[in-house]
């Protein structure tokens, strides 16, 4: 029998309801072959997947990036087949096996829907939610969801919840329905009904799976509070029997999560489109208030996750104002898809630090710096420096080894510090095994990535994803360091957040520019390809392009 | 370049040789993956290196457009640009000029074309091609040749052949004066279309210049010609070319083509095929190409090939997850690209071992039996190999032979 118990603990000093907090998440595996612990210090990040894979990364890259640990797997893309294919995978950890994640490195959290897909969907029903796969909309019932979970054995399951992805705003009645359904569906997940015999279940030693629940209630603070109260209410009679020995639903819940995308959509429908920095501050403020409304009556020592923060600025605010522990970095992963290399740090580096022949991000009109570079921009065609000015590459880092003055940290990503793989394949008995050169491999340059972007080469995104994940990893470890120091310097974190917010511009403009350039290259390529295909008709030469 | 023959097949004309270039040793025969734009589709140079590949190709035409020579000069060449620490070959740019640009006009001076950027008339001369390739800095560079389609007939073929020889002389002159001769090696390209007499004349002329070139390519066979003609030209050229120079057959990448060429005495080949076909979901195996887009793979949890040492197969990445992600996630293309490049490398590595061990004829028989056993052996392969002493059908009287050219391609319904 395999067990994986997810535990979350906070520093004793950090249990105030709504303040930044340092925590530790650990997943202990005990099964016939291994006994391992995956530990994640919080605040930290999760990686998001598309069709089960982290976009642009091959499995050898995923393994080599040690900061990839908690990985979210939306299940809906598998609904195009009945039964969904991962359900048929055999073994003790079918979802890990099917998707190629390492049980010693990766915690998989399975949800029905992709939390970053905000498209309008047909309404959910009393006994199902609507999910989207490549062949269209599929209904997922609480029983089928439970069976998928027990078959796939992810480490963590997100309970089915009724989040309306229909035109905002929602009526009072709709919110009430959402709360009721989500409560019933969570009860079903925690109950013994439709659960297989214990021997084959991926349960925790306590006998229960690791369950996350979406805190629902839309943009209505009272509705949000009402749902949370349902969770902590001590159940009686038949209701209690269902979930026995649990007394409340909350006892069966490992952590809480917030899906911000539908909330934003509703807020924007209610208050009009926001685009200015000032407004997004207030949107972050509104979202924080909604999260606090949900958390108010819940135990403060449980894991809190948000999906759909859009900037490092928001992440800092949600840590400061709510005490969120885990964040997706989908926006940073997507930035890699549109040609943006991230270039920022928390805490903001001291101005005395030398940037050594590396152009810093553009400063915008308001006097704030971008958090990265749009490498589509022709300014980078001749820029042969490393990807980020705020980090050294491995080669430069080594070269300045003996320098103890203020030195930039090193970005250890596969683009800034390329490492040869541990082994090289040999395909015959006559090739001499070559020793790897001992000198470090220089970094991939902005000019190279610029070139790859304009020639539509996929390697550009691979390099940028690796780098952006590393920058986010450093961002979160910076946050944890400052929080650590805050214990002796109480205002430090708030001060550093303010410094960050006044140093770096929100990336809206940067991302918009990159997206525009990306779309232009896409469409030019489309045209070029058509022209080529026309020319090639009649079985002409095949040309790589 | 140091070039040394290590072993010869006792039956066919295949040989194993050791080619030492500025960025290391490459054992021949070998297949060279194509990094058109200075990247192998979706992979990093470190990943390519880990696959056991140590010679790749960049396209001069493309790199001259982007990033352009100024940028490559600034950064110090294409090796540094793409972070590739092993051997590199560039073509001359002429082939793409003719195949990608509608308005290319060949004059004695060079190839006149309109710039894809501003439409301005631009001339690619042999001297210019050399200069561009010197900037790129590849270990092996190719002469500019006057390329005509293999389907062209008439005096244009002979004209192109003679011009290619004159352009070779201009390339040699430029290269000799460049000061790059010790690190970059110039290859001549044998032309002459599908006409054995023209090929023979061209071979004579080019062999006469053997002391000034490091190796030879067999050009002008672009896939449109009859396979039966193709192998005869390859055989004729390989047989006549000097033994102490590497022989490179341009644009060859199908497994059966590669092995036939090796048996006829070819040492190097390149093709976009294994990386291109990967992006469309086709994985290469010793049982024939496997189209992972087909529904039959959707719930198949086996890897592409249990015995394959590539990262994809050793990770046991299933056909099912590849089916789920191919054409929708770039990571699926990366995975199949890694596999396909390893397939090509295993095919050639296996050939090298077999030649060294004196078992190359058996290697050919086994390969063709597994790859084509059911669909039938391509007749041209049977004929080509018979001409160098290997009878694929020997001891296999029930074997089927197919007149057509290709492998058994699985089509998407
Ligand atoms: Zn980096
Ligand atoms: Zn493989």
TrEMBL record, chain A:
Stretches the record annotates as Disordered: 523-545
A biological process from GO: tRNA modification
Domain tRNA-guanine(15) transglycosylase-like: 21-234, 287-486
Gene3D superfamilies listed in its UniProt record: Queuine tRNA-ribosyltransferase-like
InterPro entries named among the record's database cross-references: Queuine_tRNA-ribosyltrfase, TGT-like_sf, tRNA_ribo_trans-like
Lineage top rank: taxon: Eukaryota
One Pfam family, short name: TGT
UniProt feature, compositional bias: Basic and acidic residues: 523-535
Name under which the protein is recorded: tRNA-guanine(15) transglycosylase-like protein
Organism: Cristinia sonorae
TrEMBL record, chain B:
Annotated spans, RNA binding: 251-257, 275-279
Alphabetical list of InterPro entries matching this protein: TGT (IPR004803), TGT-like_sf (IPR036511), tRNA_ribo_trans-like (IPR002616)
Any one GO molecular-function label of the UniProt entry: tRNA-guanosine(34) queuine transglycosylase activity
Major site of localization recorded for this protein: cytoplasm
Domain tRNA-guanine(15) transglycosylase-like as annotated: residue spans: 12-371
Keywords, ordered alphabetically: Cytoplasm, Glycosyltransferase, Metal-binding, Transferase, tRNA processing, Zinc
Active site feature: 91 (proton acceptor), 270 (nucleophile)
Known cofactor(s): Zn(2+)
Subcellular location: Cytoplasm
Example of a GO biological process term: tRNA modification
Reactions catalysed: guanosine(34) in tRNA + queuine = queuosine(34) in tRNA + guanine
EC number: 2.4.2.64
Signal peptide extent: none
Binding site for Zn(2+): 308, 310, 313, 339
Binding site for substrate: 91-95, 145, 191, 220
Record-level GO cellular component terms: cytosol
SUPFAM superfamilies: tRNA-guanine transglycosylase
Subunit structure and binding partners: Heterodimer of a catalytic subunit and an accessory subunit.
Function: Catalytic subunit of the queuine tRNA-ribosyltransferase (TGT) that catalyzes the base-exchange of a guanine (G) residue with queuine (Q) at position 34 (anticodon wobble position) in tRNAs with GU(N) anticodons (tRNA-Asp, -Asn, -His and -Tyr), resulting in the hypermodified nucleoside queuosine (7-(((4,5-cis-dihydroxy-2-cyclopenten-1-yl)amino)methyl)-7-deazaguanosine). Catalysis occurs through a double-displacement mechanism. The nucleophile active site attacks the C1' of nucleotide 34 to detach the guanine base from the RNA, forming a covalent enzyme-RNA intermediate.
Membership in a protein family: Belongs to the queuine tRNA-ribosyltransferase family.
PANTHER family: QUEUINE TRNA-RIBOSYLTRANSFERASE CATALYTIC SUBUNIT 1 (PTHR43530)
Protein name stated in the entry: Queuine tRNA-ribosyltransferase catalytic subunit 1
Species: Cristinia sonorae
Lineage summary: Eukaryota, Fungi, Dikarya, Basidiomycota, Agaricomycotina
